Amino acid sequence: MRVLGVDPGLTRCGVGVVEGVAGRPLTMVGVGVVRTPADADLGHRLVAIEQGIEQWLDQHRPEFVAVERVFSQHNVRTVMGTAQASAVAMLCAARRGIPVALHTPSEVKAAVTGSGRADKAQVGAMVTRLLRLDAPPRPADAADALALAICHIWRAPAQNRLQQAVALHTATAPKGRTA
Amino acid sequence: MRVLGVDPGLTRCGVGVVEGVAGRPLTMVGVGVVRTPADADLGHRLVAIEQGIEQWLDQHRPEFVAVERVFSQHNVRTVMGTAQASAVAMLCAARRGIPVALHTPSEVKAAVTGSGRADKAQVGAMVTRLLRLDAPPRPADAADALALAICHIWRAPAQNRLQQAVALHTATAPKGRTA
């Protein structure tokens, strides 16, 4: 099972591909960051994110895309940008019939560290260990994207298979939308 | 000058095309709503919005796209969906090199009614009058989309010309992103 994790953001969008199944050692396939210039206008930034995500999908052909679920507790301006970047990531995946899952930050932290309140350093350390890397991926957005992918592989494998079957069905069916 | 106004939303995305210049009577070219089923998953809804917006761009070839600027004062869940739908609209426009402008709800209300606090009915009545329609467009999202387009035509014509020149330049330049 190959999953692309996306930690959405306008300035830095973390992306990480992990392969494996629950209960076995996982493998990092790729990790990186899609960046857009803060001084570009919003439309162009969204186009740049689209191009970046498309490249990752083309190159790594994930079976699932896991995106961080956006909340609006935080800074209003940041959250709007995050929501917009996440929309582009979801759009790119759904357009190809790849099932998209959303996981909250605390679900991701709990999955990789055992605690929903873990800090960035702890998440980075566990991602490094679980994927047997030499050092924590930088920046933190890249590590978070890998953590999202790991979280997705470990959560509800049965649900994933169901979702994938539905996505495959709707991608090939004449009317592409589904309940 | 032909403007597509977009009142973003996941369930109903209002779209309206208005043609004209400031100081002359305006003409409605088209109005409608892009709908997505509330029970579909988010990725598929965003794809449906993309397809709908693309159809409007193909059919009406606007020179500008005006999108309502999303704030997060309101209901959190609604705002996230609105931000995501607006991202898709901006992405579709920017991908074609069409300049995108954002206007706040109060800017739009002030432009068409003279008051930033006008209610839906007042906006609908003024849209009907300004575009010389027989009745207010329904639903309200469609009227709001027309109001956005009118607002855009009336605000800062000089700025629009500059923006269009920049967009034309960046669309033809080898590196498509700009300051």
How would you describe what is shown here?
2 copies of one chain form a homodimer. With 179 residues, chain A is α/β, with parallel strands linked by helices. Chain A has a single domain (2-172), classed as Ribonuclease H-like superfamily/Ribonuclease H (Nucleotidyltransferase, domain 5). The first copy, chain A, is 50% helix and 18% strand. The first copy, chain A, is built from 6 helices and 5 strands. The first copy, chain A, has helices at 42-60, 76-95, 105-113, 120-130, 140-154, 157-172, and strands at 2-7, 12-19, 27-35, 64-68, 100-103. In chain A, strands 3-2-1-4-5 form a 5-stranded mixed β-sheet. In chain A, strand 2 and strand 3 (27-35) form a beta hairpin. The first copy, chain A, is globular. The model of chain A is unreliable at 174-179 (pLDDT under 50). At the A-B interface, helix 1 and helix 2 of A face helix 1 and helix 2 of B.
What are the SSEs and their pairings?
2 copies of one chain form a homodimer.
Chain A: E1 2-7, E2 12-19, E3 27-35, H1 42-60, E4 64-68, H2 76-95, E5 100-103, H3 105-113, H4 120-130, H5 140-154, H6 157-172
Parallel strand pairs in A: 1-4, 4-5
Antiparallel strand pairs in A: 1-2, 2-3
Catalytic activity (chains A, B): Endonucleolytic cleavage at a junction such as a reciprocal single-stranded crossover between two homologous DNA duplexes (Holliday junction)
Organism (chains A, B): Streptomyces olindensis
Pfam families (chains A, B): RuvC
